[in-house]
Amino acid sequence: MAASTCFFQSSSPLPFNFKQKNNQIHISIFRIRCYNTSQKHSSVVTLTTDPPPVYSSVKAFAPATVANLGPGFDFLGCAVDGIGDTVSLKVDPDVHPGEISISHISGQTPNIHKLSKNPLWNCAGIAAIEAMKMLRIRSVGLSLSLEKGLPLGSGLGSSAASAAAAAVAVNEIFGKRLSVDDLVLACLKSEEKVSGYHADNVAPSIMGGFVLIRNYQPLELMPLKFPSEKDLYFVLVTPEFEAPTKKMRAALPLEIGMPHHVWNSSQAAALVASVLQGDLFMLGKALSSDKIVEPKRAPLIPGMDAVKKAAIQAGAFGCTISGAGPTAVAVTDNEEKGHIIAQHMVLAFQKEGNLNASANVKQLDRLGARLISSVHLN
C-alpha cells in the first residue's frame, strides 16, 4: 500500500483566519496537501466547499425589540412591528473573494457618524462575518449597506436589529442554509462586543414574537406564542437621553436576597403564563413588578418613575424600562388608547425629567427578520 504524507497549506479565502485590510475582512481557510511517497505526486483536498450565491443582491429587515420585560432580565424579549434596521447586501466583484466591505451607512438617527464602516467594529459587519464563517464563503466578495431605522442606545435593540438583518441577508443570498440557532449565534458574536453575551434582543429580532432563552450552553430558545386573536400594543417613549448599556449594567447589584429572588421568579413565571394566555392585565402587572433591575436603573433615567406612574394612571396595563433604557415601554390593547398613554408619558418626561421625548405605538412583530427584496443572478 502506498504511503502518503499530508500537511496544512494556507489557501483561498475562507473563514478560519482573519486579516484586516482597507476596512475589508480577509477570511482564510487551510487546505491539506497530500504527497504519495511512492508515486511522487501530490493532490490538494479542500476541507469544505462554499455554496454559490443564489441572488446577486438582497435586502433584509430586522425589527426592534423590547428586552427584559421587567422581571425577564437577559432571558426574555419580544419583537416590535414597524420599526427596525435594513441591510442591503450584494455580490461585489470589486471586493476580494471571501471578504466583506461596508460601503454605506444611512439613516436619520442622531450620532450615526459614530458607526464604523470597519466590519470588525460594526454590529452588522460582525454578524455578517460570522454568518460567512458558518457558510465557509470563499468564492465571492460581498458589500453591505446599512440603513438605521433605530436610534443608537435607545433600549430598542438597535445593535441587535443591525446584526439580525445582516446575518439574515448573508443567509438569504446563499440560499437559506443556516438554521435559526445559527443566525442567533452569529448575532450573539456581535452583541458580545457591544453589550454582553445575551440573546434577549437578537433572538426575538430573528424569530419574531416573544422568545425565552432557556440556556446558552448549548443555546436553547423557546418561542412563546401570543394568541393571534388578541391585540397587543407597545407604547414606546424615548427621551433625548443617553443610557449606555455598559453603564446601565454596571448599576446592577452583584448579589440579591432570597425574598427578591422568589418575588422576581414568580413575576417572570406570571409574565410567561400571561403571554401564552393572552392575558394583558396580568402581563402588565408582571411587567411592572421587577424588584431587582428596574429599581437600580430607573434613578439613572431622569423622570422614569414619574413616566411609569403616568402611563398606568392613563390606562396602561403596565410599564417598565425597555432593555437598558432610556426608552419606557407600556402595554395596552388599543391603538387609540396607546396614543393617549404616550402623550401622558411624554409630558412626564418633560415635566419631571426635563427631557424631550418621542413616542411610537406599535404592535407585536410576529415574523422577525426577513427578506424584503432580492435580485436573481443573471
TrEMBL record:
In terms of domain of life, where is this protein from?
Eukaryota
Family annotation (InterPro entries): GHMP_kinase_C_dom (IPR013750), GHMP_kinase_C_sf (IPR036554), GHMP_kinase_N_dom (IPR006204), GHMP_knse_ATP-bd_CS (IPR006203), Homoserine_kinase (IPR000870), Ribosomal_Su5_D2-typ_SF (IPR020568), Ribsml_uS5_D2-typ_fold_subgr (IPR014721)
**Pfam families per the UniProt record, alphabetical:** GHMP_kinases_C (PF08544), GHMP_kinases_N (PF00288)
Q: In which pathway does it act?
A: Amino-acid biosynthesis; L-threonine biosynthesis; L-threonine from L-aspartate: step 4/5
Q: Which residues form the GHMP kinase N-terminal domain?
A: 131-209
Tell me the GO molecular function terms. ATP binding; homoserine kinase activity
Q: What is its EC number?
A: 2.7.1.39
Q: Which residue range or ranges hold the GHMP kinase C-terminal domain?
A: 273-343
Q: Which reaction does it catalyse?
A: L-homoserine + ATP = O-phospho-L-homoserine + ADP + H(+)
Keywords noted in UniProt? Amino-acid biosynthesis, ATP-binding, Kinase, Nucleotide-binding, Threonine biosynthesis, Transferase
Q: Which PANTHER family match?
A: HOMOSERINE KINASE, HOMOSERINE/4-DIPHOSPHOCYTIDYL-2-C-METHYL-D-ERYTHRITOL KINASE
Q: What is this protein's name? A: Homoserine kinase
> What gene does the UniProt entry assign to this protein?
11434404
